[in-house]
Specification:
Its main location: membrane. The protein has 16 helices and 16 strands. It is of the alpha/beta class. It folds into 3 domains: 2-41 and 459-486; 47-168, 2-Layer Sandwich (Nucleotidyltransferase, domain 5); 246-426, Nucleotidyltransferase, domain 5, CATH 3.30.420.150. Strands 8-9-7-6-13-14 form a 6-stranded mixed beta sheet. Strand 15 (429-430) and strand 16 (433-434) form a beta hairpin. Helix 7 crosses helix 15 and helix 11 packs across helix 14 (393-413). It starts with a helix and ends in a 15-residue tail after the last helix. 36% of the residues are buried. The structure holds uridine-5'-diphosphate. Uridine-5'-diphosphate is lined by residues 56-59, 90, 131-133, 202-205, 245-247, 348-349, 352, 395.
Length: 497
């Protein structure tokens, strides 16, 4: 008994003071870790929103973008959260009844009203950008274009968003913002990776934009756009060809074949067996072809398909001017183009057409692409209709022309070859967001891409919590060891003093 009492006195680990210190130590360490975890836990995600309407020549589409509200200076990743295709044609088609242009937009804006949380409505910027269709209407009849914009603005102001205006984008802006979108979504800007060129094919215009080592803007300042993004400088080459979107290019190709105003044209770009009566005044009702309208032609012509790819390509080539170039090198129509460089993303109608034709895979050699197109163009119209019962006849009839036009534009127009054709990727979306100018436009107007690389926090959240936990565990172990003299001795033979 006396030996046990002596042992207790020498090893007083269970004295009230030691126990209290131990408990306080453990509580302090647990509290430290808990605070580190709780304090730094990401708050439930809240978002900010932006809305852009793309008023194209053939249709209008609305896109809603969202990004995390907590991130400083809006540096969080921006993603598309909704897209809505407006019913009916592009706003430029409403020149004779402008109010209908405004009304056409309301269904998609209602969807946007539902999608964006009510408390965010008033701070959500809303932009409308019009492209080549309105550029053409503005050239043709600027007062009609003004009236369409008035009607559209009136309609947009009725919604609770922060309306930032409706305007026509220049071709240069359309090209440059398409390039920003593709490279932002690919994370190439922030990570300073080689950029991807952008090829955009619309109904009324087409854009090519890329960075090339042999372009600094001095050869052709009109084609130069300088950007400083995330601390890096880019000298972007961009050009927009008005009237070379696929719908206007089709008019130009038909105009090539109807110069003399014949009653029938045998068109190699349409399937054999296709025949439609068309109106000369409708065909020539565009500033892209109006100066070529044949005099004294009948009111209508018989548009008959012959289905011959190589002859179609010959006619298509005639809408380009390859003869003159006052620069070291040109694409076509005396437009400077530096050497093609890097990977390219081809979107909008490039994608729609090549996807329909099953030709989005650019590892398919160009010779095989032309073989397949030849076979497709030669397919009788009845058979084509049978094979694609769900496709709108207007689109279906034009895919032979559109495919031929795309291949000709890329190879003869922009000088892509068998070697660099595989550098092109036909894309619709990148990480859930549509490729197109709209996202780049919004990022620019909301200053969401900083000119300089943002400072990164010294430690990410997970690193901070891990370090605090490790330090707390070390402290705990040290604390336990510091109490070592007080540990109970568990030898078989208690030491008797
Ligand atoms: O499912 C679709 C949607 C659109 N298009 C075509 O893609 C082009 C898109 O043109 P947009 O209206 O964007 O014209 P922009 O104003 O940019 O020239 C037009 O030729 C449309 O006919 C298509 O082939 N398939």
């Amino acid at each position: 008994m006396s030996a046990q009492r002596d042992m207790k006195e020498k090893n007083p680990w269970h004295t009230p003071v030691t126990i209290i210190f131990s408990v306080i130590g453990v509580i302090a360490i647990v509290a430290l870790v808990t605070v580190a975890v709780l304090q730094n836990r990401p708050l439930p995600q809240k978002y900010k929103y932006g809305i852009v309407l793309d008023a194209g020549s053939s249709h209008t589409a609305l896109y809603i973008y969202e990004w995390p509200a907590e991130k400083d200076n809006n540096t969080g990743r921006v993603e598309q959260t909704l897209s809505c295709k407006v019913d009916g044609p592009g706003i430029s088609s409403y020149a004779s009844a402008p109010w209908k242009a405004g009304k056409s937009l309301t269904k998609c804006l209602e969807q946007a009203r539902q999608k964006v949380p009510v408390k965010r409505h008033s701070e959500t910027p809303l932009y409308l950008g019009a492209t080549a269709g309105m550029r053409l209407l503005n050239l043709e009849d600027s007062s009609a274009s003004t009236k369409v914009f008035q009607a559209v603005e009136e309609a947009l102001q009725k919604f609770p968003f922060s309306f930032q205006g409706a305007r026509i984008l220049s071709g240069q802006e359309e090209g440059a913002f398409g390039w920003v979108t593709v490279n932002y979504l690919d994370d190439r800007l922030e990570q300073n990776l080689q950029t991807r060129g952008a090829l955009d094919l619309g109904g009324a215009s087409t854009q090519i934009s890329f960075v090339s080592d042999n372009f600094d803007g001095s050869d052709s300042p009109d084609n130069a756009v300088a950007f400083r993004l995330y601390g890096n400088d880019y000298n972007l080459y961009t050009h927009s060809f008005l009237c070379y979107g696929k719908d206007q290019a089709l008019r130009k190709t038909l105009a090539q074949q109807t110069k003399s105003g014949p009653g029938t044209i045998l068109d190699p770009c349409f399937h054999p067996g296709y025949t439609e009566t068309k109106n000369y005044s409708v065909l020539y009702d565009s500033p892209c072809v109006s100066d070529r309208k044949p005099q004294g032609a009948p009111a209508t012509f018989n548009h008959t398909g012959k289905g011959n790819f190589s002859r179609c390509q010959e006619v298509v080539k005639r809408i380009f001017n390859f003869t003159e170039c006052k620069y070291s090198q040109c694409s076509f129509n005396e437009v400077f183009q530096p050497r093609l460089q890097g990977p390219f993303g081809a979107f909008s109608a490039y994608y729609f057409v090549m996807n329909f034709l099953n030709l989005t895979d650019t590892s398919i050699p160009l010779e095989v692409v032309t073989e397949r197109l030849s076979r497709y163009c030669a397919t009788p119209w009845n058979q084509v209709k049978e094979q694609h019962p769900g496709v709108k006849l207007k689109y279906l009839a034009e895919y032979c022309f559109s495919g031929t036009y795309i291949v000709t534009l890329l190879t003869k127009g922009y000088n892509f070859t068998s070697e660099n054709y595989p550098n092109i990727k036909f894309i619709k979306k990148i990480k859930g967001s549509d490729a197109g100018w709209t996202l780049g436009y919004m990022l620019n107007l909301t200053n969401m891409i900083p000119a300089e690389a943002p400072d990164s926090p010294p430690l990410p959240y997970a690193g901070y919590v891990s370090i605090v936990t490790v330090i707390a565990l070390l402290l705990f172990v040290l604390f336990i060891f510091s109490l070592r003299p007080l540990w109970p001795r568990c030898s078989k033979h208690p030491q008797i003093i």
